[in-house]
Every structure is written in structure tokens, then in C-alpha cells.
Task: structure prediction
Amino acid sequence: MIAPDLQTATAALRAMIENSERVVPFTGAGISTESGIPDFRSPGGLWTKTQPIPFDVFMASSEMRDEAWRRRFAMEDYFGKAKPTRGHLALASLYRAGKTPGVITQNIDNLHQAAGVPHEAVIELHGNTTFATCLECAKRYELPDIRDRFEASGHAPDCECGGYIKTATVSFGQAMPEEAMRRAQEWASDCDLFIAIGSSLVVWPAAGFPLQAKKSGAQLVIINREPTDFDSIADLVIRHDIGDALAPLIAH
Ligand code: NAD
Result:
């Protein structure tokens, strides 16, 4: 059912949440646009401006590693200043109320944690761009340190072990994090309400989770201002602004 208007949508969503024991929210870039971080696929989104650098290209070329870091520093104006949105705050309220085990997210912006969901309750399918790690020894690096070294030498710095340092994100062509995938599969198949929020649901394997939840017997809600390929199997489709749709769930 596509909710005819915002008021019907929020009332229906609230009722579904109240009638559920275990709610699993699944978020994409759309939940963060209100914070100023652009998404990938909206008109004017990041995808329309620059294609991402695939993992094999990052590994093969020092120029592309430099380019990857240049782009990341340019994005700091967005990521560095972003604050949790009404959507993030609403999901943090659901977590505190014991309605949800946490959030499965495709986002890399750390905003669920900033809204108060503990780190261990956020399943990050695509990693986190607010810090970096060595691809060889997994040592953690903070971005201001990398930036200082980049600006001093003009090049992406390497780890003391010789490995390449990359933001702690999962690039196209890079292996998905096994533990995160395993936990997300577990949550998707063990909930009675699954809410996909702000995702075009085209990036696989992440997009498979709404389907898995539905097949496991959960009700499915999709909140996205544009249609998705999964709308036809959803129990409720809310084609409105995410902040407007979720704001009534924020506990004050
Ligand atoms: P996407 O860009 O493919 O889709 C986002 C969807 O959200 C779009 O369909 C858009 O219509 C909708 N949307 C945007 N703002 C909205 C709003 N305020 N209200 C309602 N709908 C809104 O994003 P995706 O499906 O998450 O896939 C993109 C990939 O890029 C993900 O893997 C993600 O990791 C990454 N990404 C992350 C961020 C971030 O961390 N904030 C930003 C851009 C891209």
C-alpha cells in the first residue's frame, strides 16, 4: 500500500511499530541528505558528478590513491560538519525504547552513532569514512593525521608496515565485511518489521536484506521519496521526506 498522504503514513507506521516486537531499520544515503551529505542517485547526487574509484584501481595505482584521498578531503566539508538528522534521532529513540536491536546501514558517515546508537549496535555494511585503516595490518589512522602527511608530501601516505592506508569503507570490488554481513542476515531473518529508509535498493548484496526479511515473514516498510524495485512487495510505502516521516517517533 502506498500511503496517500503524510499523516496517514506516519499513523500507519506508528501502529506497525507498536504492534511489533522486533523492528529492524535498514538505512541508505537518503537518511543523511538532511544533514547536507549528498546521496548517490538523486538528481545532482554524487554519482552524477564522479564515478567511485573501484578497489582494484585504488590498489593498482598510486595516482588513484592520491586522487581517492583528494576526493575524501574535499568531502570533509560535508562529512566533518554533518549532524544527525531527524531520521537518525528517531531511530536512536526506537533503540533506547528497546524496539530495535540497532540499525543496519549502508552509510559510511557515522551519524547513527552520533545520534546515540552504540557502535556495536550499528551494522555498517560499507564501513566508515570518518577514520582510515591500513589494508595490510589493519592499524587505525585518524583523518587529520593522514591529511597533514598528504599535504606535506603531496601523496597518499603508507602505513609504517608498508601497507596502503584507505578510509575504512568498502569500495566497489572490495570484499564485504563478513561479520557485518552475517549479523545483518541474522537480523533480517529474525524481525517482525523491517523498515528500509532512504535507499534506492540497487546496491547488492545490501539490497537483498529487505527481500530476505519479507521472505522470513516480516512486514516491510519502504520510506523513500522515489519509487524502488521493492515497492510492490512492501506492506507500506511512504514516498515522503524521511525527516518528516520519522520526526513523530523522536522521543523528547
Ligand atoms: P542512493 O543514493 O542510491 O539512494 C538514496 C535514495 O534516498 C534515493 O532514492 C533518494 O530518492 C532517497 N532520498 C534522498 N533524500 C531523501 C529524503 N530526504 N527523503 C526521502 N528520500 C530521500 O543511496 P543508497 O541506496 O544508500 O546507495 C548508495 C551507496 O553510497 C551506499 O552504499 C552508501 O554506502 C553510499 N553513500 C553513503 C552516503 C552516506 O554515508 N551518507 C552518502 C552517499 C553515498
Residues 28-30, 32-34, 37, 39-42, 45-46, 106-109, 126, 198-200, 203, 224-226, 241-242 surround nicotinamide-adenine-dinucleotide (CB under 6 Å). The longest helix spans residues 62-79.
